[in-house]
Every structure is written in structure tokens, then in C-alpha cells.
Amino acid sequence: FGPWHRGEQVAPAGPPAPVALFAGVARPADVLATMDRPVVRFRALPDHQPIDAAALDRLRAWAGEAPLVCTGKDWVRLPAGARGDVWWRELRVVVDDAPESWFELLTSSQ
Q1: Of the chain's two ends, which shows fewer C-beta atoms within 10 Å, N or C?
Q2: pLDDT (tens digit, 0 to 9) for every residue of the chain, 110 residues total?
Q3: Using an 8 Å Cβ cutoff, are 5 and 53 in contact?
Q4: 57 burial level (CB within 10 Å; 0-12, 13-18, 19+)
Q5: What is the rounded distance in angstroms from the CA atom of residue 14 to the CA atom of residue 47?
């Protein structure tokens, strides 16, 4: 994972624990396993699921008093005006035994 963010700002201390984590990625259990905060609630969403204002309101209600946390991939799918109080981190993907040239090809296409 990269550094913690809250909204658009880097937040080095990260969210207070415990957190409510949602993840709409292909392997949500991997996100849960690498979280550096105690997770009091966890919700796996389908990969690439859109998150509109109503869905975000349901996630906030589900989180209760716990800070709402997601991946950077999920955060960008939140409604732009509603992202400010959601904590997030970028995922770091590690591919075992991949040649360095593979990573260079992947990142040069962005």
C-alpha cells in the first residue's frame, strides 16, 4: 500500500482504528489481509462496481462510527463531491518472478 489519504489530502497518520473497509477489487480478501488497521467491518463489492451517492450513503450507514476506508481504485469511483471524508490508499501489486521489463511496459502505457 501507499500512504494514507483522506479526500484529496495525504494523511500520514491514517484513520483512527478500528475501520470499516470496503473493496471492489478482484481479490478483496488480499486487501483485508494487508490492512494495517484493525477492521471492524468488511464489505467486498463486485470488481468495478459503480458507487453512486445512494450506495455511498448505505456504506456510511453500514460503517457506523468507524472511519470508512477503501482502495484508491474504489475511491475514484465515488461521487466527486462526496469523497472528502473517505480514507483510502493505493494498492501495490506485486508479481512474483516477473521480469523488470514487464513492469516498464505496463507503466509506459499510461
Answers
A1: C
A2: 789 999 999 998 999 999 999 999 888 888 888 888 999 999 999 988 889 999 999 999 999 999 999 999 999 999 998 899 999 998 766 666 666 666 566 555 44
A3: no
A4: exposed
A5: 25
